[in-house]
Amino acid sequence: MRILEVRVLMLLLLAAGMVPNAGAQSALGKTTLSTTKVTGTSVLGGGSHPVYTTITIPYAMPDNDLVEARRNSVSSKPASSATPMALSIPTPQPNKVTNHGANVQFEGLSTVDTANTNGFVTTPPDQGLCAGHGFVLEIINSSLVVFNVAGSKVSVPEAVNAFFDADPTTTFISDPRCYYDRPSQRWFVSVTNVYDSSNNYRSNLFLAVSQTSDPRGGYTLYSIDTTDDGLDGTPSNPGCSTAAPCFGDQPTLGADAFGVYLTTNEFSLFSNTFNGAQIYAISKDALEDGTASSIVHIGDLPLAEGIAYSVQPASSPDLSDEDNSGVEYFLSALDFFGTLDNRIAVWSLGNTRSLNHKTPNVTLMNIVIKSEVYGQPSDAPQKAGPYPFGQSLGEPEETLSSGDDRMQNVVFANGHLWGGLNSIVSDGTNTNVGIAYFDVNPKMSENGLKATVHGQSYVSAEGNSVIYPGIGVTAEGTAAAAFTLTGASYFPSAAYAHLTPSHATSINIVAAGNAPQDDFSGYPEFGGAGVARWGDYSWGVADGKSLWLGTEYIPGGIDATSYFTDFGTFIYNVNLD
Predict the structure, then answer these.
(1) Distance (Å, rounded) from C-alpha 278 to C-alpha 235?
(2) In DSSP terms, which residues pair with 330 in a beta bridge?
């Protein structure tokens, strides 16, 4: 594929903190050697586990308008470099839909678990999933639990706030992720805290690192300040101040052999400030030893005609493809106008072994390559059916939000970088929501980063939509995506497709939805406009030669008039060899 753009940022991290950029590199970014703090320890399942019998007002998780923020990021660019491309909506051949069970499949957490553990409900769930050492850990907004590989709970569902020792009356925790590191047999769990009203509305990322291979054991808790107002070791980013603190929304989690990586999109709590993607890199060894104190924070990342957003770090099934000096790969999309685009960005952070040093010396590069066309998705309809909560309010049935076309989770396996995103597609008659996915071959050399698209394709369903892909890839390169299937023919259902570089196989329904979503977030009485929150992501992760997949669906049987919503999650294991 033709290389459209190459950028390099050499990051020589000085103990003094901010790194001055030189010459032509001055506009490429800003790096701070900041600090992470140990806030305590926690034991998953070690709390008192109260069960609440009454539910307070529900909470919708933060939903900052990333599409509008992307548009605004190009507003200061010359018109010649800030014009949307003339592209056509993709019209892929729709995939056949079948009903196909999995090796192991079981109900995950639901809004009932969130209500019982917190006394309130949240939406959407945000599917976090990781697996290894005979366990499957699931975390959603706002509860977490451990299963064995047969699908039986081996811990009691617990409130996420309780696990991180965060007061739910003063903090706002969201966007959970987890990762199991196979070489070290450690578990990593992350969330963002939008604000702490008891501490001048400062924001942070929480990261929990297990002390043993058992996810039910002890964890070391870390806090990373994301307020970025120049205090607490943070950089002084534009529009971030004590009066208008910033926070890291839509966070992600990845790892390579030497580091753990979190990225966010930086917004201001009280203004329309958007500072784009922020990358945080931390020594994995230090995190596991409970001694991590320094962190590499990289921000101010221009990309093409805008500013980078949702730079997704890769995780790997076994880290066998790692470079000796260490390299972490990332993918991101480039649809700055919320229309259509045919480019993706590949990123590398090189020399990550140096994260173990007092003054790390890492190199950030990116390269923009041509891809298949993708674009801003529409809302997704659902099959008509009874929705007692909405009907009691006199409201019409909701549609589901498919969010936007940011890059979803990324996996590096067998020398290939896999990623996918929601995209508008056409079936020749109507436009629906489909999935565009990419198989990229990145390569680091003395001359820098190179990347080509090895394969790419779509997943789509005629007359219906598939939303929020969560891609899992084995060490041998076998890939599948979990997602929700919804539309005129289907209540929101848990499904997956086997992905190859050239095409996706049939859409396999593992757990058929049994009712429409009936969620407070879409109703005007709760500030909605007819579109309910969904997602915001599914997940896939390798466990040996099999893949664990998880996504949101509507199981039926949950009384939304009592719980304000009726979502569930479904977890399933597939072996595609």
Answers:
(1) 11
(2) 313, 347
Q: Report which of 42, 209, 248, 41 is spatially closest to residue 130, judged by C-alpha positions.
A: 209
Residues 538/551, Cβ–Cβ less than 8 Å = yes
Q: Are 239 and 275 in contact (CB under 8 A)?
A: yes
Residue type, 407: M
Looking at residue 344, its amino acid is: I
Average pLDDT in the 276-305 region? 96
Q: How confident is the model at residue 84 (pLDDT cuts 50, 70, 90)?
A: low
The Cα-based distances of 384 to 192, 487, 489, 514, 519 in angstroms read: 35, 9, 9, 11, 15
Phi, psi of 189 (to 5 degrees): -130, 130
Rounded Cα distance between 140 and 143, Å, is: 6
Whether residue 377 has pLDDT greater than 80: yes
**73, containing H or E segment:** helix 66-73
Q: How far apart are CA 449 and CA 368, in angstroms?
A: 11
Q: Tokens 């979190």 map to which residue?
A: 262
For the chain, what percentages of helix, strand and coil (3-state, to nearest 5) are there? Answer: 10, 50, 40
Rounded-to-10 torsion of CA 548, 552, 557, 562: 130
* pTM metric for this prediction: 0.94
Mean pLDDT of 548-565: 97
Spatial distance between the Cα atoms of 554 and 108, rounded to a whole number of angstroms: 12
d(CA 507, CA 481): 10
- Hey, what domains does the chain have and what are their CATH numbers? 3-54+62-74+86-574 (2.130.10)
Is it true that the peptide bond before 536 is cis, omega within 30 degrees of 0? Answer: yes
CA 472, CA 20: separation in Å to the nearest integer?
39
- Has residue 238 got a pLDDT over 90? yes
Distance from the Cα of residue 415 to its chain's centroid = 22
**Bridging pattern class, strands 410-413 and 399-400:** unpaired
Look at the block and give the residue holding tokens 């030893």.
Answer: 289
Closest-CA residue to 420 (of 409, 434, 433, 431): 409
Which two three-digit tokens encode residue 224?
């990373």
Q: What pLDDT is stored for residue 22 in this prediction? A: 27
CA dist., res. 429 & res. 248, Å (int): 40
> Would the pLDDT of 15 be above 60?
no
The length of the chain in residues reads: 577
pLDDT tens by residue, 392-406: 999 999 999 999 999
Strands (E), 271-335: 274-283, 294-299, 302-303, 306-307, 312-315, 327-333
DSSP-derived letter for residue 236 is B
The two beta strands, 507-511 and 97-99, are parallel
What share of the chain has pLDDT > 70, as a percent? Answer: 91
Q: What is the pLDDT of residue 115?
A: 94
Strands 416-426 and 410-413, sheet pairing:
antiparallel
